[in-house]
Write a structure and sequence with these properties.
six-stranded antiparallel sheet, seven-stranded mixed sheet, single chain, globular, about 25% strand, 3 domains, about 375 residues
Amino acid sequence: MLRTALISLIIGLLLTSSIFLFLDSAGRGSSRALGKSWDPGEMRVVAGHGAKSGGGLFLVLNQAGQGIVEVASKSEKLDELSVLHVTLNEGSAADGLMVAWRTKLSREKLLHYRVAAAPAGSLWLSMKDVPGWEGIATSIGLVFLGPPGARVEIRSVELLAPVFPYNAQALLSDWTDFAAWKLHSINAHPGVNSSGNSHYPVPFAAAVLVVSILVYLSGFFILRRKVNIELRVVAIMFLICWIALDMIWQARLLRQLDATREAFAGKTPSEKRVEGRDANLFGFISRVREEIGPGHPRVFVTSSNDYTGMRGAYFLYPLNVYWQRKPPSLPLAESITRGDFIVLLKPTQLFYDSPSSTIQYGDKSRLSVRRILSTPTGDLFQVI
């Protein structure tokens, strides 16, 4: 019974994969253009510091947390080369990756695509449905993002035709490559890294199950004297498909657990804030709290970015904090009194006029203030 279910599933998986990948490959690619590859010697460092050593390009991110590498493009036809393969050293410390390119059609306009998966190891990307990935490329670049000084080792970059084996590798990578949790992860798990550009695991597993059942029933009709239909066989195939789907999710949870443990294990709450994505914001708010001092002053927080405003207000509690999600971000000037504090978190639509020491917002509202702190993250003012 188990053997019958496994044989049916294997045949069903092969048939379903062949159909899906054939449809992806149909009408794309060319036997004359199976791919183009670039080794480190053909790469040019545009931002950051780079050095070639041991068959790889070592890239150090600059103070802005960026490292940009451009490959020498020779008019590659992006329609025919829609699978991008980037090989990195496993120890690469970048947090994010963007693919940037220009085409003859876009001219000087720079097109880009943010990669969801963490840039490490062997990264396969299907670019066939990415907006702008068409026409003849005039330049192609990789933009690595992360902490200033982070190191990335690039081994090779390849553009490949969307033929069966490359499509299969890109699809598998899209399902299994690790991508750290984001703000929306609490609400949904898409199952893929490139939403909208890939086949989703659940419909694929359902298709495999249906095809496998058809294979099993076909075997019954072909060998009806030797095989009996058993619902338990169908139940086993359903259970195996379910477990396979859950294994993808469990693998992601385990890798997220490892990443979280490595970043935060053994640290105090304050140390964890310094290591997280809110490090700059938390550091600035800590300075704001020191400047405000004891007592119960009113603190008005404003930012045109919802997340930054909410987190800034959260870090300031239990002070008497005012933050409003929708504009106007500050109440009328007559509602703000002398001694109140205003925290401007960037980006902001409020304007501080330095010569007159006033904050201007709305149509006519003005506040006379004294600037206490000024940083790239934000500013602290006190109403005078």
